[in-house]
## 1
Amino acid sequence: MRSPFSAARIRRALPTRRRAVAAAAVVVLLAAGVAWAVRPQGPDLRTESALLTVRSGPSGDEPVDLDTTLYLPDGAAADAKVPAVLLAHGFGGTKESVRADAEEIAGRGYAVLAWTARGFGRSGGQIHLDHPDYEVRDAQRLLDWLAARPEIRTDNAGDPRVGVVGGSYGGGLALLLAAQDPRVDAIVPMITWNDLSRAFLPESTGKEPVNGVFKKSWAGLFFGGGGNVGSGPAGISGATGAQPEGAPASAGPPSPGPTAGPGTGPGRAPAGAADPSCGRFAAEVCAAYLRIATSGRADQAGVDLLRRSSPAGVLDRIDAPTLLVQGAADSLFPLAEADANARGIAANGTPVRVAWYTGGHDGGEGPTTDSDRVKFLTVQWLDHYVKGAGAAPGDDFTFSRIAGFDALDRGLVASGYRTADYPGITGTGRREVVVAGPPQRIANPPAGNPAAISSVPFAGELSSLLGGVAGDIPGQHARFESAPLPEAVDVVGAPTVSIRAASPTGEAVLFVKLYDVDPSGTATLPNGLVAPVRLTGLPRAVEDAAPVTVTLPAIVRRIEAGHRLRLVVATSDQAYATPVEPTVHTVALGAGAVTLPTVTGEPIPTTATVWRWVLAGLLAAIAVGLVALVAVLRRRHRRQESSVHPAYADTPLVVRELRKEYADGFVAVSNVDFEVHPGQVVGLLGPNGAGKTTTLRVLMGLTQPTAGEIYVFGHRLVPGSPVLSRIGALVEGPGFLPHLSGLDNLKAYWRATGRPWDDAHFDEALEIAGLGASVHRKIKTYSHGMKQRLAIAQAMLGLPELLVLDEPTDGLDPPQIAEMRRVLQRYATGGRAVLVSSHLLAEVEQTCTHAVVVNKGRIVASGPVEEIVGESPSVLVEVTDPEAARNVLDRLAGVRVLPEGDGQLVVDTNGTARSEVVAELVRAGIGVDRVVPRRRLEDAFLALVGENSRGSGDR
């Protein structure tokens, strides 16, 4: 697990703030850009990598190779000594896991020694889980090595000025090393444990770990992360082992301190690890894990082994000032572990400070605002207690919670708070919330399968992502709920609740969870945390059961007003080992209330807050300017719209000499002139790229024309003109909110217009849409054709006097197209008019009264459809035998039977007299019923624009 003190995250924070200010002013953008361009690319450092042989073990004389890298700041020398920091990695990682942190700390003037712990990567030896005689003594030998370096500041001979920083596995080492070696001057343990046996065998009613519930998922990852030889796989540190740079130093004489030499050899399995299931674990560690994992229960020997590697028993020996950083999103080492460490160290009179943040083993580094805060606290602690610079940091308590999303980069934002005194996990205040529900029977599944999912290592609250489907298995959990909270509650600490349980077996393993349920019913389990309990001596009847108090994991969460609490008691959880035998338990509430600890904290100002105030000021100034500009433009528009062109007052649409030219010189529309009168359905026709869409975009105020005028009922049209409310439009396809139903989309659209509800004419619009019951379905389930029909209905809401439709039949099937034809014809009555753009010339011919044909940005024809079609060179011939007639006419010179007859016989006579055509058919014995002229709009269209016309490339 990477610590939240990350150089990469810290560096990313600065340009993010610069971009925020840059969005408000070009001047700031330029300044930020210049500053970013000339910034140092990183601290000037030099590194030394080597395999150091240290001697440790119970006798203090067992050699092991440790893969190390020393980071020295520029200028560090014998006459310019610097303080040091030992930087330890997380379980499964290597020295490369902490490279970025090492470079950042070294850049602040410290010599940083990072190393790969024994049993991982290229280091030799076995994994003993931070055993005082092995991993801790290894670190002591590294202190010896630092004290002998000429660049390192010392307090006395052999005593380097040194701090120890580490996360998780490395954090446990920092605590144990400080307890074992008084030379350590300050420590910063992060996201680590107090009692390793309690962490892996928790029991939330206060029982000893030997009666705890085995945390099998995390234990399996621990064991698997250290079970391979060589560069260990990604483990709790979240980083893979990597080969260090540089060659090993030459061998030296044996000594109690570290030397360069072969030792057990990099990456080789140690002697005695014959069992392949043990990998690089020490045999006793391997055996303890296998015993517990097989039975699902701990024995005292296993508990003693884990406690041997726990700070809990040695906290009274820690004199080094301690900054404890713990994550709230951590199902491995929850906040209670840091609380126990803090209380134990403070009891010795040692300066202690506690900081909670929103990340952890399940939540990573947390938001940038949180990692920046932790970085600041860490540097402040080291600078004062190790470097001897700056005022004492104090012992105030800081914590944070997720506040939402940053409006600038959509990243999570955490708000930080501080209090003068550390309240622990019990808080400084209490809030009792009554939960209710009857006694309930719940089944323990055989072999723990299927199991509820509350959290998965590294994945946090997975159950909330699954919407509760896999979170709690039906029949395997009981629910007790509260009424909606009348006011928000800021929970900071560990809630408690009393329950009762009964079982025919006399024993039950249960998992207690506290959900935050919003008014919509969505339940969230904060950070996926659960409280496992093992209850024994249970009666058969729940009425005879004594209440037991369960302490839930500590959380930091605001439960908003109107939300409810849901207490869940489950029989299984994927992360824990449960009894194999199936049985049925009964659970009930004890006292009937959940106790919520609260803390009132003072908000912590951050540089981000300062930048936001600066940004707010800039945005306010810009907003004032924009308001003034809009006011000026509106006054100008009102003056332009105050007069009505008398010649066009009763005409829905008049377009005069319209021209649209783009900045690159491209002319999309060069000279368009037409009118749409009441009762007309006007088709706007043209090949692709002819300028149709540009004309419609200008008409709807979506783009400004270069020249020309558009009048709607005599009002000159400009963007934002009130007369636009008299136009209904479908241009550039439908756009709807996918999570709303069709009907809700129509209602939302109409509300946005601000017009009276009764003016919407919803019934007519829904009849036009023809969606039936589908109008109540969510838009994301609609086909393209259904969206198109709904968009047309939306355009017709309010029965606007002018309807503008771009390809309205796109996506409709033939019956729907025919119905659309009738709808448009009916619509153009009572003074209303329709302008429709379409590629379906046959539909335009049957639907429209008038047509405007555009080609290469110019009108090439306009007027009634029958006038544009004109005199026909072809005839429609109705005969008794079409196939025989086709054969006869094919033999006539100059006569051509057209292929697009839609099942009828359409003949192009090409000057041959119609009487001659009829006579030829009669002579062949074919009856002729009717001969009528036939010319389609398509024929006229092709004659006007040319069969190969491709328009002008309309945009």
## 2
Amino acid sequence: MRQSQLLLTTLRDVPSEAEARSHQWLLRGGYIRQIAAGIYSYLPLGWRVLRKIEHMIRQEMDAAGAQEMWMPAIQPAELWKESGRYGAYGAELIRLHDRQEREFVLGPTHEEVITSIVRNEISSYRRLPVNLYQIQTKYRDERRPRFGLMRGREFLMKDAYSFDRDWAGLDAAYRTMYAAYERIFSRCGLTFRPVEADAGSIGGQGETHEFMALADIGEDIIVSCSACDYAANLERAESGRTAGSSGNHPHASTDGQAPSEVHTPNVKSIEELSAFLRTGPEQIIKTLVYRADGELYAVLVRGDREVNDTKVKSYLKAEQVELAGADEVLQAAGAPVGFVGPVGLSLNILVDHEVAAMAEGITGANRIDTHLTGARPGKDFALEFTGDFRNVTEGEPCPRCGQALEFHRGIELGHVFKLGTKYSEAMNATFLDSDGREKPLVMGCYGIGVSRVMAAVAEQSIVEDRLVWPMSVAPFAAHIIQVSMKDEEQRALAEQLYAELGAAGVDVLLDDRDERPGVKFKDADLVGAPHRIIIGRGAASGEIEWMGEDGIKTTIPAAEAVQRVRQAADVAR
């Protein structure tokens, strides 16, 4: 491609709306342009990167035995009502009506559609297993689109769905797709880690893993152990202090004095209460009121801990969980937020294992400006519902080996689920097994955010003041820069190398613009080709200045430059 013909407009200034480095560089380099919040156009450079990522995904999906297909983005709402997700999915589901007032949704995912297709196409075990995938645009009405392609309202996704006779078949499909994901992200040049995860709105009946690219800008927190292979999303992570707890709490007291009231005027927060009573936050029992599918619950954790909403949602098997409003709390507890406690509270109480194991603690008294000291778990409030309801903290023991847990930030690239029979039972997707009995299909689901992968690769590929794409996804493998457009020897050598690399099937960009060298070099930093061939004064002797991925410039013969690029391109394929 000749740069004079390429639709490429680079920006010198960092766009004010771009927080993440990848967002800044993709805008400055002319890869993407925003049309509306969370909605982007991909200009030629960006589209080239996306197509290369797609190509590798297709290669690995096909090699894993999956079959590509295409499903509509507009889906009948009836399918979502049939699965039970229409009301449960929440505000991110974009709903619309046609001129006949029939209700549809813009697909954020395709479990309902694929289940509907397969239940009509497959009725016998003889046609199982089957794995189907597509690469298609998805839509989610994100409340706060941010970080460019990281969290958008329209994005490109690969979603695959496996169908099996039984759980043994699903286990095999899951392992196959897990391994394929590892190959895909490795080929993209990413530093990543698979972690245990929560199934979220997709749901499921078995294990699930997210594949995380390590990056400081990541919205997710990865909890991992350096001494063993344990790794989990913070939503799912456990501490060795609470993992596997049976609910028996030997420290729970059944005797002693009743809790004592303490006047605590305007003392609402844990920090204020700790200072007022001159005690550590670990001696305080924090009570938060949540609304889960319309019903209120109190959740108790130590004052130095944070409630994990996802764990609460999973324990209650709820579709939606959120903090109750101030008015709801006042009505349910008789006291405002900050003074609520479990003693005498007429709500179901979820007690974290750490709280249940306390001999006594400080709580709200369900009366304004009042707290209780000496509240005893198991005596002054019930331990009927105990579990792991908190976020782990860095440095706690690993649940597998006991060594200290570490925190890292990550970008979710892909997610694999064992759906089991969640959708097939709800939507009556069955088959006749070899014993003549009708059984529900056993499903798996496997997604990759293709456009997010592009952003994650960019995030990890910014080296100081330049972008250096991995060879496998780079829009161009080599960038030929002719320093002086008036020098005929430079022009002749540039055209020769451009022709040779093009004939070898290498994606090459020739900067044939009549611009100052400084402009060309700055644009080359934004284009990010891993190999840069600079043709200057050495052209007369057949030499060029070479700069590879390491950023080191050397003078080499022009023929050697062609050989280096061809070898690197062959490896990337």
## 3
Amino acid sequence: MSLLQDKVDYAFQPIVNIRTGSCYGYEALLRGSDAMGFPSVLHLFDHAYTENLLHKADLLLREKAIEKFSRLPFMRDAKLFFNLDPRVLQSSDYQPKQTVAILDRYGIDPRSVCFELTERHDMSSTADAMRIIQTYRSQSYRLAIDDFGTGFSGLKLLYDYQPDKVKIDRFFITGIERDPKKKLFVSTIVDLAHVLGIMVIAEGIETEAELVTCRDIGCDMAQGYFIARPTTELAALSTRYEHVAQLTLNDRRAKRGEPQSAPQQIEFIQPLPVEADMVQVFEAFRQNKDRTFFPVIDRQGEPLGIVREEALKDYTYSPYGRDLIHNRSYGKSLKDFVSQCPVAEISEDSNKILEIFSMAENREGILIVSEHRYVGFLSTTSLLRLINEKNIAMARDQNPLTKLPGNNSIHAYIAGALTDESRACSLVYFDFDNFKPFNDAYGFRQGDRAILLFAELMQKQLGSSGFAGFLGHVGGDDFFAGFDVREPQEAEMRVRQLLATFRQDIASFYDAEARENGYIEATDRQGQKRRFAMMTCSAAILHLPGGRRSSSPDAIMDQIAKLKKQAKQADDGVALAVIPAQKVSAIA
């Protein structure tokens, strides 16, 4: 054990707010196992486990990490993340409350410690481990699931342990900006975690593109070489990492003028500190008779959940209930009555906030945080008002005939696609050929039917399959679609299928003579009678590859307008262009 004490050290790696770069905490990473003859830290712990020394070794290492953490000048505003080998909880020599004594010696609040439980060892069926985890919770430690998604029974651990944090394994983070399956996996976990009131940490971030993608998906925190490498030098650590904040600032500048979230809807409800005694809790409800719940925060202002008035009713209406709960020897405190509540960052867009709320069982609303600290509450009433405002805005922009999104939504989609330069997508503009002669010959009602036919075919062949990320109606016989695809040929194939179906179906809108001749006679724009072929549709496809420079929506639309002219002159009605990577600075 003395060898372990002398040979090893701890490096700290920051875990930061993915939007602001402010440091939330530091993970303690063991260094020096090779000096003891072990090829890795995992081999060291395996050896200790085999020799029945795992718990003793773990306590020694905990104290070493805690002592070093206590020397950080900004220690009181940060969390210490410490990896906990689950096998420690099953050790025959396990002794509870040893860490509390260590923390007391160094003046550290247990709420400042987050134990990371790895998925590498299966403990999903161990009753003793579950009991010990509950004990850790009762002692106010935070819990995180590490390496989420690569080990044993990940979702069962999420369900059983109800952790405060989930750390997505770096396998799913590496190259996420160019891997749709990884995006889907991470976004699904983020949505599930947020509904459960759990924060998500993306670990192993090594590039700007990975960080931006994880941020846009909704991850709360980030860790990895792109932010900072682990260091044994405490002086090298910072409370804020400006290059992360700058990325968000640049993104906000690019989106200036777009609708933001709804901070004006946020209500500040005075929170209760988790260390408040139950007399204060009852008094808070007595003084606020219309209040049915209060947010609960820790000493650093981070929300833990809410306490509902109904959770206290058994004690409120019992003859001796209030006296019993006020008795400290009874053992009940505020943290025993805290319920989980969904949490959202104040900078989150309203769509994401509504999505979180729609999946939550919580009926009160959503806790709103900034820098992971409580700033207010978005009530159910406010959320319903927000939904109503969004519905009104959508109705204003919606095409009255097809009910598809209109020009404002189309412009917003294009602007969003251009903001993320690592994102590959195809933008498609559809325009009917020979629509006016058809409309003149058969009337406006039949013309509207032709427009509705194309809208329905778009939704059926592109939208219902989930292939197109966006469908819109520019107006009249002009439509728009956006595809999140790596290769333009993927979009082109779907577009050609749609045009072929439309060409076949629209023929039934003509009379028998026109179908037999393959044309109709109508007056052109100059007032001359001439023959017009049966209606078809042309498509201009502009593909934006990943790894390009930024461009404005107006410049992109100019390029699409040129492609549309080419498409109308093409025999097959399709024109495709790919913007070269790193050469989009000026499109003319």
## 4
Amino acid sequence: MLAEVDGQETSNGTPRGVSNGAQVGEGTPAEAAGRSFKVPPESTNGLSQNGKTTGHAPSSTYLGHDREEVTRILIQALADMGYRSAAESVSRDSGYELESPTVSAFRTAVLDGSWARAEELLEGAVLAGSQRQGNGLVLAVGADRNTMRVWLRQQKFLELLELREPTRALTVLRSELTPLCSEQHSKLHFLSSLLMCQSAEDLMSKADWDGAHGESRRILLSELSRCISPSVMLPEHRLAVLLGQVKESQITNCLFHTNPEPPSLYSDHTCDRCHFPSTTALELDEHLGELWQVRFSHNGRRLASCGMDPYIIIWSVPDFKVLHKIPAHTNSHVCNLAWSPDDKMIVTCGKDHYAKIWNAETGDLINALERFHEPVSSCVWAADCQTLITGSFDKEKSLCQWNLKGERLYTWTRKHRTEDLAVSPDGHWLVAMDERNWLHVYNFVTRELEYEWDLKVRPTSVSISQDSRFLLVNKTDGEAQLVDIVSRDTIQKYQGHSGGDYTIRSGFGGADESFVISGSDDGLVCIWHKSTGIPVHRMEAHHPRCNAVSWNPANPCMFATCGDDHKIKM
């Protein structure tokens, strides 16, 4: 647990790991992470220990890149991969150190729990750009030295509690932390409450902290490194991060990306257009009425569809045989359906004012929710498969959460008709679309309203990307809009389809969700490149309208559409 830090990622967005070239299990923490690969004074390659030229030195650049930066990143990468002899050899031959002795000493102090030494080195640190910068500890622009002290002293406080030394821990809290956190009353109150923990296990649980012998010191060092200039302490796993950015950029720039495998570093990435799904391979015509929804299961092995018929059909994939024809809502249209995250259940919504939970394996009814006063329009599952959320035209129960027993757990109180819903895969966001022009965005964990958004035009569907970052809104004005769900900034717009007066659904798809796909009131299916908004494909699908689309999450070369002509097309 760190002051003011909730995230569990490193500063460069990579998963937590060992710090800056450290390998878990190699000697003591300091020995594992503190090797700076120093160069002896008698270095004979034309470079002195600090990288300054002394003789016939090679060029200061490498194909346009700074030679020192490239070399130090290579040294770190070799150490990360366990090639320590090679890393030391590169350091010795090049004359460049991974980091200076002062930075190495700071790392050692943190990993060994030498808190006085760590604070002493921190006190001597200078700000980036200072004339005294030298090779010592350099703080990044905007870094707060007091915040770094709080992190160090908080770790010290927790470790003393873990050692069952409450008197010394209380002294640290009163004389070292309180002066720095005088205005952070909630933090001081929380830390004070930890003094009451009866065991180390209780402390770790309440503080969300894994102890001095866990990863807590490495996590602390990682957070501290965010405040230190990257020129003296490289961000963790820097080469891996740069290579990841290269791959992401190549995928982003691939207009017909259909290969789910990560791009090779050996060559530039491109996908041939001939592999892009652009022709109708199969038509399914078991339904007798208009179709309003078609959805692949999360594993891509089944497909479910519904519409004006009183039943839903579950198909096997890829042979598309009918597995179940479930009479979901007797003598009533089926407005919508949703697969549970484990694909074992399906919830359906009907114009008969009911929502029902079904066993997707057997087709048996699990439970019917209490009757609504108006049709149920939409449904989504929570990530744990234990609860679901319904949207209804019933303003008294327009947005509700239920358990599998059919018990209502919570009712959001805003009085509007809900027409469509989306929940983020990470379980943080819940988005409800009303019958007017508004989106209501909730924190699904706290159930609090985060914000409301007036689109100025009526939306027809909403969906959230698999990384839980982006919200896709389809609208009646013939435009789909990609929005950053946190900042609310519009990232991209997609045009070329028509909205009309009915629900037209859109979604994400393809390898790495590289595309946006949408039905259209004029019967077309339209596909755009997600990042650029460039139209990739446009084809006739249904007559008179294409109502819904679904891209197979397990097969980037397969998507399904359905429409008013009673057909599903693959």
